[in-house]
Structure formats: structure tokens, C-alpha cells
Write a structure and sequence with these properties.
The complex is a heterotetramer, with 2 copies of chain A and 2 copies of chain B.
Chain A (H helix, E strand, L loop, with lengths): L4 H6 L15 E2 L10 H14 L9 H20 L7 E4 L2 H16 L5 E5 L8 H10 L2 E5 L1 E2 L4 E2 L1 H7 L3 E7 L11 H10 L3 E5 L11 H4 L3 E5 L10 E5 L1 H5 L11 E5 L2 E4 L13 H14 L4 H19 L5 E4 L10 E6 L4 H10 L2 E2 L1 E3 L4 H7 L4 E5 L6 H18 L1
Parallel strand pairs in A: 1-15, 3-4, 3-7, 7-8, 8-9
Antiparallel strand pairs in A: 2-10, 5-6, 9-10, 11-12, 13-14, 14-17, 16-17
Helix pairs in contact in A: 2-10, 3-10, 4-5, 11-14
Chain B lengths: L11 H8 L4 H13 L23 E7 L5 E7 L2 H14 L4 H5 L4 H5 L12 H18 L1
Antiparallel strand pairs in B: 1-2
Helix pairs in contact in B: 2-3, 3-6
Classes of the chains: A alpha/beta, B mainly alpha.
The structure holds pyridoxal-5'-phosphate (2 copies).
One pyridoxal-5'-phosphate (PLP) sits at the interface of chains C and A.
């Protein structure tokens, strides 16, 4: 089977969109957020139109239906990620997922002088929580540098950084470079020295099937909105023994067993970390997204995206003044092409591309340490996903060439 | 291959009585009645943390043992009459069976009784958790 | 003008719902979550179908439209609550809002021995975070008792409890009793002794117009889903000087000014507390909900709901064995009628009511200390909102009478 | 009542030049050209925290003063050409006016120029924040 991109595109109403200037939308901002197929939008509308109700303690039909759908979504999503529902904690996204590890695990298990290893290509979501802990309790934060020739992690430096580490936090796939890190090796080597490992899969999950149980990472952070799901939801997957080391983070209803004015007792396992009214519609929408994704072989999807990205990058390299950051030609690269033009400033270039209907992201991509390493303040980034086509890529390259001819 | 029985023969009458109900309100009335007819009740004085069934929305308690004749026996109690009624029926079903039989039994009789609306996945917790607990105990007692 | 309930009901597709047994849904579980008008559902679908994009740093049309809608929602919602957008921080709901005060304000400003005053009628969301701080850093938590004759706060005890208090946290309206507390008096007296005040308006906001600036509370917690908005969003409103005392809670992208491997600097004001991809669809949906609510005079809405609740309670009192907890007859009572039957256990009663199509909530309502004060493990609760009718209330009373006749 | 002028007369020509553009790409080209024609540029060496315009996505810096003739003068620089072009036009508009006039001026000329797509509320930050900064400075200099 090969992917039928026309059929896939038909699932996404937004891809029919024309911009105010009449141009057809070409959406190349997928690393920021993906578009949503109609079935995801409909699943949420149906919830609100047919069985919206607060979940749990369900003693009426609607509450029962909502609870069943909510828990059904957890089953579906956790199984998509190759693990059991008990290992999954819903959060508002990857950012909250990482904060939950900081507040719920690290704050209890790390103390002054303990070492957390990060990399220079982390997203701010996987940097600032650790810097804050360093300010608050004095942990030591180490950054594994990147090799700016190959745009990959310096694995020799990684091994040195591992020395005495308690926690290693690495991004699965860089949102700027599209580079996929050797996370299997990172997990193995980190655990060999007794460190726990957090993998930020915000960009990884939309591009390959994450199998949490076989990956053996201690924590995996994921955002739904980057993988066809809605805004406002994500999760942290947590290995059983790591979860046992965790203490409550946010507290309130649902996560308790018994509350008295003298004190409270808490639920065990993942239930201890979910409080307040659940993100019911969001969970149902994400469940539908995962159901939609399940029809595809993610290796084929990856290949499709990788083909577009590597072709686009190779064409762009031939446009005078364009520099690519990253190596989209690599087989394991994931559809993000960061670039700059030597004279057309990135904000200007973004507006000019937008004028042609091309949506690309521009800025530091919440990865300023990586920008510093690359020696640039920002990049333009075209990022591709399952519904993008080679035709779109061709028209993009064409239009970019025109802009450069006209404005450089 | 002989007929596959989904519940013990002596329960047929009970299941039929429920099936004969005019509507779910009548079935609930019948469950309320069965709640009073538990063949082996566990009185509230004997409810404790050990015999509590977890995951129920109301309180439910179960203890199981094997009698002199080697028959499985469950004693149960719940504060909700509907759960208590389902417990009575379950006790009627399993009491006297061999623990081995109980350990592999399925809760089909409850479905056949037509009490679905109290058995939807999230609400069924009361009954299903109770049933699972009985089966687990039976499994241990088979050992 | 009086409310045209038929027209209002026509906005809610779910109110046409029939349960699997053919009964028409009568939704009396509004204190748990309200239903959503079509315009709210549509606003979110439209976002996903037409202009879904990650917000901020908007250099393409979709991102620009999404950012405009997101910030437009903030303007609309904050203005609905009588304050400026700068005083509003989006959270996932009231629970996260209160946790944000605990982590972002209290953890920085309170220390061992400092006193936090709560009440016995708080929701777990406004109890457990403070108990946790008491375990973690040794603050003292005091509970203002309720008078179980009048079901109101013991205001004499409140004045005593205030002695030396640093923070006072009180629920605007009890989700169990429907009682509205004298929050104006509470705010004034608390601030007179130099304490900051948090008001949990999860139940208050759906029933009266909260005017944050004139209320002068330091913190107000709100959930969207109880006031016609979607799941997964809410806010904390924070007074300017209180916000200045706050430190970051969750950290990552967006809330930063500059991140380097040496350390980071943060945004100021509300932007410091919002990190990660925003709840874009949710904010847009909540904005639409507030727009929908704005067409009504909330005093009329309150009167409508109060009429139904007080009539229903007065009728229920005549049914043998029914006991009401709370005083729905009071003018300021807000549509929640908690009750028990002396012989029909609450779970049983809930299932029997459900059989008739009546959705009521049953349990401890995340208010176990209040249950303890009332001397019951749980209650049944019918809670009314704008779209409920006297007809529904009549059929409810009727059906309840029948059940009692048949099952008591 | 006389005609209400939305921008100084000497800017008419500039506005008309933009209005005569065939499409937005041409307008952008023109803005790029104007970026080079800033009558009072602020070179990058003089960019600092004090004169930075906040809320821009790209860097933009502005300083204002009153010249010997009592005329308002702005000097500006930005790394994005589109912002820089709008700065040039703004400088052409305001330089020489009285600070009092500048303090109450509206940015209508930008709209009239037809550069809307770079002026939508969230993207306009660059330009609008720059414009606001100029007006605030003018207001202070009127004092
Ligand atoms: C009084 C009160 N406070 C707080 C909450 C918590 O709100 P949420 O679950 O939306 O976070 C609720 C809702 O159940 C409530 O009724
Ligand atoms: C690599 C990476 N990590 C973390 C995040 C944060 O995800 P979210 O904003 O959904 O919390 C992102 C998204 O921008 C990302 O690309």
C-alpha cells in the first residue's frame, strides 16, 4: 500500500482554505501544530451535542457515556503508544508533562548537586523547568552540545556529561532541525549509569510510532495538537517504578481517596496526578485522532514526509543565498527544514511567503540555546506532514526562487 | 458438543423472573426484593477494609470461603440495594459450586437479567468489581 | 424583558436528546458542568476547520487569525469579568487556578506558621493544595465551620479565624448547598487584617456577573465548562499588586524573554504564567460562551433558576422521607438542591431517577469535609441552570414521588 | 467644516505611490525601497535597550528629539525591511511637525498605503508599537 494523499487531504477541511488575498493555503507549519481531520472535529462536536457531562462518579446516563468515552480514549491512546492506560497521565500538553516530571518526580528525588543532563537542541519546555530547579534547589544542569557540521548531538560529549547524572532529558526529534536523536542509545546508556530518562516526543510522536514499553524510557512527553489532535491536551507516559517515586503535583478533586479537615489520602498510580474536571472533549478528540492515524503505516508516513523534506531542501540549496540548518536529506530526519536567506531578513521572508499562501514559522522556535549554537537569532522553518504533497513543495521552491530574484 | 451453560441451572428460574419483568422499573423493584433475600448476607458489623470491594461508588463488602462439603460460599453486603440485589443473585448462583467452577465463571446471568442500565461500563463498577473479587477469591480457594 | 426559555433551549442541541430507554433527557447536573450552546460548539469547529494554527509569533495568515481570535477571547472574557486582559491568566480550570495561587503566590509569600483560612464548605480543589502546603512548609490551615441549621458560614467563627491570617480562601457559592457566601464582607474583613483573599467562583460565575475590579478580591478562580464554555479551560483573575508578588509556576516556551544555557529571564505580568501552546480552541469557545451569556441580564437568570430551585425544594420537602440540605428558598441561593431519602440509598435513587431521564449528581461532590459536617457520606443533587424549566421541575417532583411510593 | 486631513499633505505623494502599486508584492518591493530611503536612520551601532521598541517580532529602535526649529524628529532602524520601510514613511510624515501634532496623529497613512496584510492586529505589532512609541515620545517632548 502507498498513501493516497488525495484521500488523506479530503479529511482536512482547512486544506481547502483560501487566504484573504485569494491564494490557496499551503500549510508548512506542521511542527508548530498539525491540522485536524474532520473526524476529530466531529468527535468533539458530537460529545458536546449528544452526551456532554462531567465524568466519573457516573450515576446518570450522560455521565456514564462521557466517562466511558473518556476512559475509552485513554485506552486507545495508551495502546497506540504501546503501553497500558495506567502508565499514562493526561496533561495539557508536552510542556505541562515536563513540568509534571519536574514538580512530581524531580522535586522529590533530586537535591542540591544532583545532575540533570539536557542538550543544546532542547525546546524551552525542556530547559526552563530544569533551570528553575537549579535556581530553587541547586541541581546542576549540563548541556550536551551539538556538532554544527552534522547538526547532531555530540555523543562523545554526551557520555562525558552522563558522569554522575540522575536524570537525562533529550528531545526525540528537534523541532528546528528535524534531526532525530539516537534515543534508544541515549536511554540505554543513561540507564546504565542509573539515571532516569525523559524523552520529549512532542515532535517524535507525529512522525513515528512511539512504543513506550519497548523504548524503556522512564518518561515520555507528548502533545496531542501536533499529531492531529486538539489543543489543550497531551500526556506524560511514566514507567511503573518511576511513577512509584512520584508525589502529587496539582491537587484537588478526583486525585484523592479521602479528604478531612485533618488531612487527606490520595489515589494511587496515574489517578494521583489528574485533578479537576477532566479535559473530556479534548481526550475524546485525541482518541479520534489516534484512531485516524492508526489506519496508516507510520513508516510509510515518515517516508512520504522525508521525501518531500529532503527534495525541498536539496532544491532550496540551489537558490542563491539560502542556507539550510539541519540535514533533511538524512533518512531519519523528520520533515522540518529550517533556513535563512543571507540578505532577506527572516520576518520579511515570512511575510513575502505568506503573500503567496505559504505558511511557514519564523522565529527562535522556543529553542534559543540552539539558535545561539547555530549563531543566528531565528530561522524560517517549513515543516511537512502527512497531507503535504510534492506539488506543494514544488510551488514553494518556485515561489521562493521568485522572491529571492525580486527582493535579494 | 453439548449445550454451553452460561450460568448454573438452578439460576434459570431467577433469570427468567427478571426477564419476565414489564420494564426496568419492575426489574429494579425485583432487585430491591432480592436484596432482602441474600442467602448469605455479610452484616455491616463485619464490613472492614479487608473485605471492601474497591472501585464501587457505594460501599460493598465480600468474603468467601469453602464449606464442609467443599462448596464455595460467598457472603456479601452493600449499602446500595441494587448492588445488594445483584449480590444476592450472585450468591444464589455460586454458593455450593466448586471454587474451580466459580473461578472461571462469567457474569452473563446479569446481562441476561436485563439490568443493562446498571451495568454500563462505568456504572457496572459496583457489580463487576464485586464479581471479579468473588472470582479472584475463588481462584485462591482453588489453590 | 423576561427570559424566553424556549428560545434559549433551542440553542442547546443536547436538550433534544433522548436516552437509550426512550426517555427525554432532563438535565439537572449543571453544577457539575453546564451544557453548551451551538454557537460555542461551532466557534471551536470553525477554528479547526478554517484557521487552526499555533498562536503568537504570527508571521503567516492563519497564525495571525488564530492569535487575533485567542487574544480577542481574552479581551472578551476579562471584560465580561469586569477587568482588564492583563489581570487574567488562562488555566485548565478552577482547580489549576487555585494550584497556581498555591505554587505561584503562596509558596513565595508564605512560610512556616503562616495562616490560611478555609471554610468547611470548600470544594476539594480549595482544600487539598493548602493541606499539601501545610505538610510541605508548615503553614497553618484553619476551617471556618458552617452553622448546620442555616447552612451558612459561621461568621463569628470567621472573624476569630481571621486573627493573624495571611490568606483567606472562600467559595463564592457552595456546589453542594447552593449557598452564596457573603464574599463582599469576607473580602473586606480579610483585607482589613492584611490578608489576601482568594474567591473560588467556579459555581458563582455561572450564576451572577462577577465584577473582579469592584469586588477587589486578590484572586478569583473560574472554570469555563460550568458557564456554557468548553472543558479544559478556566482562569485565575489576579489583582495587580498580588500578581507582582508572584513567581513562575509552570515554565517553558512563551513565558520567557530570553533563554540561554546560563539562565533565563521571564515575561512580566500574566504572560509569565502562561506557557506551552495555548488552549486556542478552548479560549475561542469560552469567548463565544461569554458572548452568548452577555445577551442576558444575569439577575434575571438568577431569578429564573432560583424560582425553580426554591419551588422544587418546597415540593420535595412534602415527599415523605426526603431531607433537603441547604436552603434553596433563600433569594441568594443558586440552583443546587442537595437531598437524601431516608431509606432509598443515594446511588439507588440516582439510578432510579436516571431511568426516568433525570440526570442528577450523586456522591460527596468533592466536598467531604462538608459531608462530614452534615453527617452524611453523600447526597443526591439536582442543580438547575438557565435552560431548565418549571415543567421539568414538576415532572421531576412527580417522578420522585412515584419512586418513593414504590421503593421506600 | 474644512477637510479633515488624516496625514500631513507632504505625505500624499508617498501614499499615492503605494496606492498605484499593482499588487501587494509590488507594494512590498516599494517598502523595501523606502527602507533604504530613511531620511533619519538610526544605525545599528546606536541600537540599545533604551531605544528598543518592545513587542516587535523583529528588532526595532527609535529615538526622538526636537530640532533647533522646534520641529519633531524621529530616527529609527529595524532589522526587518518591511518595518524599516514603514519607519521611513513615518519619519517622512512626522519629521518637522510640531511634537503636539505628532502626539495626536493616527496611523491612517499606513492603512491608506494598502499594506494591510502586514498590519493585521497581531502582526501589526511591529509597526503599531513603533508608531505608538513615536507618539508617546512626541507627547513627552510637548510637555
Ligand atoms: C466550588 C467548586 N470549586 C472548584 C471546582 C473545580 O472546578 P474544575 O473541576 O473545573 O477545576 C468545582 C467544580 O467541581 C466547584 O464546584
Ligand atoms: C520539541 C518540542 N518540545 C516541546 C514542545 C511544547 O509542546 P506544547 O507547546 O504543546 O506544550 C514543542 C512544541 O512546540 C516542541 O516542538
Amino acid at each position: 500500500m502507498t498513501l493516497d494523499i488525495d484521500m488523506i487531504r479530503a479529511d482536512f477541511p482547512i486544506l481547502e482554505r483560501r487566504l484573504p488575498n485569494g491564494k490557496r493555503l499551503v500549510y508548512f507549519d506542521n511542527a508548530a501544530t498539525s491540522q485536524k481531520p474532520q473526524c476529530v472535529i466531529d468527535a468533539m462536536s458530537e460529545y458536546y451535542e449528544q452526551y456532554n457531562s462531567n465524568a466519573h462518579r457516573a450515576n446518570h446516563t450522560l455521565a456514564d457515556e462521557a466517562t466511558t468515552a473518556l476512559e475509552g480514549a485513554r485506552d486507545k491512546i495508551s495502546s497506540y503508544f504501546g503501553t497500558s492506560p495506567e502508565q499514562m497521565i493526561y496533561t495539557s500538553g508536552a510542556t505541562e508533562a515536563i513540568n509534571l516530571v519536574a514538580y512530581g518526580w524531580a522535586r522529590e528525588n533530586l537535591s542540591e548537586g544532583d545532575v540533570v543532563v539536557l542538550t543544546e537542541m532542547e525546546h524551552h519546555a525542556d530547559i526552563v523547568p530544569w533551570q528553575q530547579m537549579s535556581v530553587d534547589i541547586g541541581i546542576e544542569v549540563r548541556y550536551v552540545p551539538i556538532d554544527i557540521e552534522s547538526y547532531t548531538l555530540d555523543m562523545d560529549a554526551f557520555e562525558v556529561a552522563l558522569n554522575g547524572a540522575s536524570l537525562v532529558c533529550v528531545v526525540h526529534t528537534s523541532n528546528v532541525l528535524g534531526v532525530r536523536n539516537p534515543i534508544e542509545e541515549i536511554i540505554e546508556k543513561s540507564q546504565a549509569v542509573g539515571a532516569r530518562v525523559l524523552i520529549d516526543c512532542a515532535q517524535g510522536a507525529p512522525h513515528e510510532r512511539i512504543n513506550f514499553d519497548s523504548l524503556k524510557a522512564d518518561f515520555v512527553a507528548i502533545s496531542a495538537h501536533k499529531m492531529a489532535g486538539p489543543t489543550g491536551i497531551g500526556c506524560i507516559l511514566v514507567k511503573r517504578d518511576a511513577m512509584e517515586e512520584m508525589v502529587p503535583f496539582m491537587t484537588g478533586g478526583s486525585m484523592i481517596k479521602r479528604v478531612t479537615t485533618k488531612g487527606s489520602t490520595f489515589q494511587e498510580g496515574h489517578a494521583m496526578f489528574e485533578t479537576g474536571t477532566p479535559r473530556i472533549a479534548e481526550a475524546i478528540g485525541w482518541g479520534a485522532a489516534v484512531g485516524w492515524l492508526e489506519q496508516f503505516d507510520m513508516e510509510e508516513v515518515h517516508e512520504h514526509i522525508n521525501d518531500i523534506a529532503s527534495w525541498t531542501a536539496s532544491q532550496m540549496r540551489q537558490i542563491p543565498g539560502i542556507q539550510i540548518y539541519g540535514d533533511p536529506g538524512r533518512d531519519d530526519s523528520s520533515g522540518a527544514v529550517s533556513f535563512l536567506h543571507e540578505t532577506i531578513q527572516s520576518q520579511d521572508l515570512a511575510l513575502l511567503l505568506d503573500e503567496g499562501g505559504f505558511a511557514v514559522r519564523t522565529g527562535h522556535h522556543c529553542a534559543q540555546p540552539l539558535m545561539d549554537a547555530l549563531g543566528v537569532p531565528s530561522t524560517n522553518r517549513a515543516s511537512f506532514w502527512i497531507y503535504n504533497t510534492m506539488d506543494e513543495a514544488e510551488s514553494f521552491v518556485h515561489y521562493l526562487q521568485e522572491i529571492v530574484d525580486r527582493f535579494a | 458438543m453439548g449445550e454451553v451453560r452460561l450460568w448454573p441451572e438452578h439460576l434459570d428460574e431467577v433469570v427468567e423472573e427478571f426477564q419476565a419483568c414489564f420494564d426496568s422499573m419492575e426489574r429494579y423493584e425485583l432487585l430491591f426484593e432480592y436484596a432482602k433475600r441474600n442467602p448469605s448476607p455479610l452484616p455491616p458489623e463485619e464490613w472492614n477494609d479487608d473485605n471492601q470491594v474497591h472501585g464501587c461508588q457505594s460501599r460493598a463488602h465480600v468474603t468467601c470461603f469453602v464449606d464442609d462439603q467443599g462448596g464455595f460460599q460467598m457472603r456479601g453486603g452493600a449499602d446500595a440495594q441494587i448492588v445488594q440485589g445483584l449480590m444476592s443473585v450472585t450468591a444464589m448462583a455460586v454458593n455450593g459450586m466448586s471454587p474451580q467452577e466459580v473461578a472461571i465463571m462469567e457474569p452473563d446471568y446479569a446481562e441476561a437479567m436485563g439490568v443493562q442500565s446498571s451495568l454500563t461500563p462505568s456504572r457496572a463498577n459496583g457489580f463487576l468489581n464485586m464479581f471479579k473479587r468473588v472470582r479472584e477469591d475463588a481462584s485462591k480457594l482453588s489453590g
